[in-house]
Fold each of these.
Amino acid sequence: MKILSDSWFSFWKNFRMAGLAVLVSVCASFAAHLLLLAIRGTTNLSFYGRWSLEPADPQGHHLGPWVCLVPVAGGLLIGLLARYGSKAIRGHGIPEAMEQILQNHSRISPRVAVLKPLSAAISIGTGGPFGAEGPIIATGGALGSVAGQVLSMTASERRVLLAAGAAAGMTAIFGSPLAAVLLSVELLLFEFSARSLIPVFCAVITAAVFRGLMGEPWTVFPMPALPGPAAPLILFSAVLGLCMGILSVGVTKAVYAIEDGFERLPVHWMWWPAWGGVAVGVIGWLYPQTLGVGYGNIADLLQSGVLWQGALLLAGFKFLSWSIALGSGTSGGTLAPLLTIGGAVGEVLAAAANAWFPGAHIPAGLGALVGMMALFSGASRAMLASMVFGLEVTGQINGLVPLMAGCGVSCWVSGLLMEQSIMTEKISRRGVRTPSHYDADPFRNMRVAEAMETGIRGILPETTVEALAARIAAHDPETALFSTLPLLTGEGILCGMISRGDVLRAIESGRGSITVLEAGSGEPVVVHPGDSLDDAIHQMLKYDLGRLPVMDPRDARRMTGMLTRRSILQVRKRHLEADRDRQPGWFG
């Protein structure tokens, strides 16, 4: 009956989390739609002086040099919102969400759910060179976190709801449900298990349905059909991944160097976004293609609609505008700018490859696609999410193998050259360590029988406390190894446990003549050889015990071994040795 009740409890818990994830997804999808409308409205008002929610591109403005003031005004508003609203709205959102997961039990202030999209709409709508994905991921995550704070739940469950909200927001913006799930796993969940993935699945499915109901296209960035995988294309993609890995390190270091420069300014941080807006405005006046989200630029690159000279200018000016603005602490995302920069550089390198090797026939769109996702892979270390995102937003399944080559090499090179990523550098400076591996927990996959110590003789129950104290004082080997000893009859029947604290209390109270059975505990917490080692460790932590008797499954009274902290550490040692010690092969 216990197994049945545990199964029903687990089922109800998962069902509850899935239902909550659906509700969070609905809220995050509405928030994503409202954010897009807010960006459109702010863009129309800022650059064209009209009240409209129709799509608008700031590139077509007729403000002339006066356009330089628009991002400055936006920066001033964001500085005020950050200082008097919430400082958490600064930045691109994902590092802040990661920090709350790792340091604050996934608790995000409800104000962030309101102020983050508002600040992003102001920033992007006034020409900020950002995408909407970072803010909506942060907003969706905040909605999930708030739901997890309203209801009674564990920190792990709250983290799952946060990730579900973030994934739903990304799906609602880009129509990329699988990439959203993978991004959540790589940057927010830090685990790969059914208990966490099923609620996130429910969230992205709900967001995908919502996107369809709103009439949004499934293929966000359509592009000409790519040829099937061929050796020249794969080789080019790998070389491009190498270049993007190096570039991702340079981009990350430049962004944080600019941020360090703003830290040294003799003015309050509230004014930094306005100073960053000066650079955005001047660059936008000289090269209007850098203003706003720039999804049109990404589409042009994928459709080979940009000459290599224009692509170089776009990459250079977009990088300057974005890095200065982001370093100033304003609100905005990183994905769209990285896609623009990587796509432009990839298209230039594709043109160079075709010029140097005329027989290669590298499609410009392939260079743009691999460049985009490889740069994001190297900068964020979200390699799987980058590959799948490229497939989902373009619908080009033939791009899978080139994307694997480019994103894999880029992530590998970036990891060799830089310890942190653009997502983790900021919180790493604050002393927050982020997980980078997703190894299976060896304790969950091992049984108690594989870790327990056998041959434990124990103490006879009729032994007096004084006699046991004398043996301990004489460093008797049978009593020196454990601070808690089992009380065993001659037939190996467990009667109880006695700790050195029990012995000391009996001696101090003048009751040294009583038996150890009277002084100890008669109902010890026990485990069995077939139990999970993880469950046994949970029992040790729950009851603050250093060792547990292991009982014979055929005779519930007979002890067959002892599980101790030392034996558990030996398991961990064997696991590390298996991972690090090289075994001799056939050739030595």
Amino acid sequence: MPRMIERFKRWRFLPVAPSLVMTLRRDRLSEDANAVDSKTVVLAVLACALGVTAAGIAQLLTHLIGFVTNLFFFQRFSTAFIDPYNPQNWGLWVMLVPVVGGVIVGLMARFGSRAIRGHGIPEAMENILMNESRIPLRVTFLKPLSAAIAIGTGGPFGAEGPIIATGAAAGSVLGQWLKLTSRQRKILLAAGAAAGMTATFGSPVSAVLLAVELLLFEFHPNSLIPVAIASATAESVRAYVVGTAPIFAMTPITELSQSILVFSLLVGVVMGVASVFVTKVVYAIEDGFEKLPVHWMWWPALGGVVVGVVGYFYPATLGVGYGNIDAILHGAMLPQALLIFCVMKFISWSIALGSGTSGGTLAPLFTFGGGMGSLMGYLALQMDPNLGFGVGMAGLVGMAAIFAGASRALLASVVFAFEVTQQPLGLMPLLAGCSVSYLISGILMKTSIMTEKIERRGVHVPFAFHADPLSHSLIKDYATKEVCSLSQGMAVSSVFSQILNQTSPYVYSVYPLTDENGHYAGVVTREDLIRKAAGSQGLVGEFRRSDAVTVRPDQTLHAAQVLMVRHDLEALPVVGKDGKSLVGMISHTDLARAATRQS
């Protein structure tokens, strides 16, 4: 730590960095989890820097994808972000382009880092749950590069997944560099991920909700504020660079019909079933690749064969496909063409993703859901042209609902669809459709497309957030009042009989000591009495622990829990405000009773 501070001073980078770092390091000394404190301020400052970084990463990756696309499909040097389809120079050779991209990604994963495989968010979740939010530094560079190659060579993925993963990696690396705690690294990881999503779609609020629902696994002010600031910062940078227009503009929704609620609920049912189907197919394909008698390094190339063949006959399936989503929301695709496109896109995407290449899931899911919703809208309007809603509205509900069912990020799905279209009247049908899709998906499938891989490894992913009962329960309400205390002037030889004959309902490994006035004087452990004091002719006070800690009745059970773990104690003495009167003991048993009572 001193070496790092000296490095900061030598570089004259961020002059307040040493004091900021020390403020964060003091987190290990805190006894309670305050709503907000000085550490929240420091994390917010770091999150602001992450927001700028993620916005830069988004722009860099977008230009990098454009460069690869232009190089492979148009044979020119340009960073313009365009679709791969080139009707003036379209030959059988284009089927080899995704294969070449798959070979390169496979080599990068094999000799660089296997962590670049996958679609971004599940890998970030895995690092939070299994690796204390530690992501290797090389992933920060290899993930966007591999994603740019995979997508730029025709991979049917969105750019948002890799950007989110890279932003998360940047937050994790910053936390590791500053030697922060696991929880602080998690907050910065989530902040980087949220900023990455915001920088891609211009959706700051839904990005924060996505971080809460899929990454933070908590709803607490001192984690929510840094994530929100990172997202807001990324949005301000994005607005300066590309403007504030919605990424998926659609015909304005000016009124809602009486039947829109029923139709939205029906779309939600279909999307809930579809989200389960999509998840099952993707992981079935992954399982199929696992059984192939070839090294996993070559799987992305095999997936690229399918991408290339499908892309040759249906060029719209290649690349990120944001333009396809825009066309769906405008109702610009005829039903038959839309059906064929969705089927071909799904085949291409599911096999490519199952092969373990580097790509995203959000844009493809929006495409499938939007397409199916629009098809339902076409069908409903044929049955009754006076229903009062458009195909674009149906596509919007389907787009959000399938993501809600597949990811189990309900609120993020609703707000995302609103932010990327800026249609406030769409909130009611979105809420209805996404809720039903979530319900159906939850009934039919225990896991989600984000958690299936982690659950298979035996790691439980939390899906419900509750307030910690220990954080709002006071020690005075659960402490044991009947205490077996020892006088420090007592002879050791007479101690054992008192311990054996104690009437207290609990037998502790720690015993409080009192002085001649009955005031609290410290503690002695059973281990010391047995190992050190046995056979001694001295007094109990000679074996008093100098590092003893106490708690007050008005502190929370969470504070007691932290101290017990930190000092490896089974119980703690509870003393009055004067620090002298012994009023009870709080133990692990008391904590468990409190948690059980309030669950």
Amino acid sequence: MLIIPYKADLDLYQTPVVTYVVMVTCVVIFLMQLGSREIVNDAAFSFCRDLNKTSIEKNKLDVMPQSVGGCTSIILQLDNMGGTERLRQAIINASEKEADYSEQETLQYIDYLQGHYDDYRLDAPRGLDQRLMFYPDTLNPLSSITSALSHSDWLHIIGNLIFFLAFAPAIEALVGSKWRFILLMIGIGFCCDITYSIVALSNEIAIPSLGLSGVVTGLIGMSAFIMPKARIRTFIWLLFFIWRMSIPAWILALWFIGWDAYTVFSAGGNTGGVNLVAHVSGGIAGYLIGYIWFKQRRDDIADEIEQEVAFSKARSSDRIGGVTQSKNIQRLDDEDEKRRVKREQTEFHDQVYNLVRTEQDSAAVNLIIANDNSLHPSAEIYVDWFKRIGEWRKRRAYLCIGRLAIQLLVEHNRLGAALLLVEECIQVTPNFVLADPRQVLLLAHEAINQHRHSVAYALLRESEKRYHRSVEPVRCGLLEIDLLAHQLNKPQLAKHRARALQSIATPAEKEILADMANQLSG
């Protein structure tokens, strides 16, 4: 029985750019591999032909000169193994089991191979396969990536890309960020190769590996976590019969990963040249990465996935029954619209998050303001953004949105709520200023009424300098002096402020300030 998944039954309204780029990259690299293999094959054949012609003495342990085809095959195998060192233990193990040669003869056989291969390597080109493969005894992070993008033959790449296309677009859309999706795939690839290195080296057989299948099974494992009930369109081929079914992602994950795990433990290492260790470890890694880093993301999109599953089932029922109730159509359309709005909100949220985290504060603020198309902006929207941005990074964007939220709250006479935001902004910078200077005195009086004198002082402090006389500087200054003298117990600073304000005061105000300065001096 052959089970081939080919598409997630989800309407995600998003072009899977990263998925397509990975697929195109795999195809381009594979075509380059084919061209490189022709060059290597020709070089190996020419070497073996010359070796066969020039060899005089026949030795049963020196097999390479005896057959051009056999010699070519051995050289290509050694090339893929990275030389005789990686093949040495495999040959020794095989000879111990078969007992065809003595230990001395086995070592001599390997020395013959090494000598001829060294001669071949003097002038032979190095194939692209060898540069791209992952060698488990090196743990090279770069080859972990390049090996995932390269393949052994057409059947290998076609099979991997079909499975990749079945799961990757949905995961790319659901994780909410292209960069997170790329890091997810890289993380799965690293987990596969580290696990394979541990298993391979513990068995002393460091066979190189290539192919995207570890990443693919990782995405299958991830799908079992982040969208377990999502249905995957699947072909099932049994003998001469083919069925098309939609199967939940968790069932497919259990089947593919479970079957590979069973094969690993039951086959005793004989897996037909397929790196099933990478398959199983990739599937487990994909699920665990989802559980550790994407648990909140799964909860956020749970309703959306449920609605998509319900919509998928309804469409299947339509095809089978042929009749759809109008109220069900309307309900599904409404749910579809809700999903679209929620998806757009999530994408917008992610855009703002990325801008804030990369310190593009002006762009983040402009994006939030541009997204608010209402004639009468809601204070709650900006308060909500103020809290969100505060969880990410308390910098310019946080303060700018805070100013807008405070201004709207004051305009709606919600002075208490506005003061809470003022206090939070002051904690970030003592020099915080309001968006509307006309609100300074109003908020300062409210803060004094609530006995929050430090907040009132932070609003009033040197207002003529901070607001460039857009406020009533002397009125603000008189209130500031009163706070310093009576509530904050700083008479010397109050006296200094009284004298400083005289330079911008009217004659009547100067007399008041002078009297205050004299009283503070007394």
Amino acid sequence: MTILLRKSTDLPDPQAYEDWLAVTGTAAALDLTRKLPNLAERLEDAFVAERETWWALGRSLSAEPSADIAHMPTAGSVGSDFGIMLAWGRLIGGLGGEDAVTLVLCDDPWLFRHLSALEGVDAGTPPVRAYSSMKLILRGVAARAAVALRCALAALRLVRGRRTMAPGGPVILVYGHPASNAQGFDAYFGNLMEQFSGLKRVLHTDCPVGRARELSTDERTTSLHAWGNPLFALGLILSRWRPGGAHLRSQYGWLIRRARALENGGGGPAMNRWQMHCQERFLTEAKPDRVLWPWENHGWERGLCRTTQRLGIATIGYQHTVIGPHHFNYSTATNADGLDSIPDVVVADGPAYLDELQAWGVPAERLVIGGAFRFPRFGDDLYDPKGPMFVPLSAIPQAAHAQIEVARTIAESGQRVWVKQHPMYPVIFDQFENLVRANQPLAEQKGLSAVLYTTGASGLEAILMGIPAFRLMLDDRIAIDVLPRGVGAMAVSPENAAEKILEPKIEPARILWEDILSDPDMALWKKLLFDDMDTPASRTKEIKQAS
């Protein structure tokens, strides 16, 4: 045996192993000099290597009745950590064939049981599962009850929007972004509503009642909540993801049980069920000609595509954000019904991302470039090798704290560091002479020497600004890579980040904005929104009308 698998309260004698690692945030007060080297790199390599496994499992699970309300079956790397669990299994399984004895600390009861079945693993007493399961069950009931009550009240309070929305015509289905306004500007689709008076806006059910009312004063915007049945909402307390028994008994059964427990331990499944209920009633009653939305291939979006095909409504999905090699959910590999659950047309925001979407399985004949509404063009002379380093903090608290630790090390060396809090998920840190908070986002900065990021679009912004970008990898989770193929930031780990960033820099080669993105093509958008479209949905509609 070369792997000692133990929980944190069952430590072996230090002489029994050469090195160690801790998984899923397990606390480990051990000798850091003996921590397994290059852990962040190993974990990320294993994560990418397990992509096909996740796709295969996701495709099989997606064929089951309750799959559309869960994140795991879509291989959503942001909404589910199932891929990280697969990566731990691959990484630790690989260590089982080495000569050195490695201690693996794991307090996660499901992952522990999965790892204990690997070859070369000497497993101790597993963590008790009943306590974790019961806590998630109770939390899930409370979360679903809160969702049920909130959605029922939202349906009652916003029902007026059902009467004011004129039937037919094109609509955009969007989230209630803080940057959108009631004068026609939308954070996802820019000034499309200002350009085209016939375009209407419907708000996703995640938009709170107050915000929905703020955006609905123009009578061209309404909330999907208006179409929801309050009695149906009260039944959301029963909405859970229920993967089939064959999957639960499979090689990955413990990991699937874990994913089920985590998803059902929150209000996500109930909220997704409500979204699908509201959107189906809206589509059936309002009968829009076509629906445009920010497409990410989530489960509720697959349900939307199936409903619109049945009703003969055309669909347009917009790639509104960055897509990189870790965004497995954009692939059609997990769509159990293939292309029937993706939009009729997928609009990329530039040439690099069109290539990315095609590589993920979207057919070339369904792809067009419509331009980027959310990424401005940047000016020249934004890079200054003597300027401060900029650190836009991640929305993930653990990732943000890792960034701050690297920032503190660099600031203590004498380098100025500006740290920008995430607007929705701020973290507390102490400032000192060279480590200060920044008030403006990266896109409004200039004179920077480097950008240290983990998640989000900051890496792409830095590269387009001509500033060296460093992506901080983490040794207990994946820093999602958002850059398209051919565009790279230097990947660094917590151990070597400060050294790599402080090395003398060669002025980076400027990547042209137009090689990645495109300006919005209003002629194309007009054609997509108002001209006749030859799509499976339109052919279905013609057949129904003829009969």
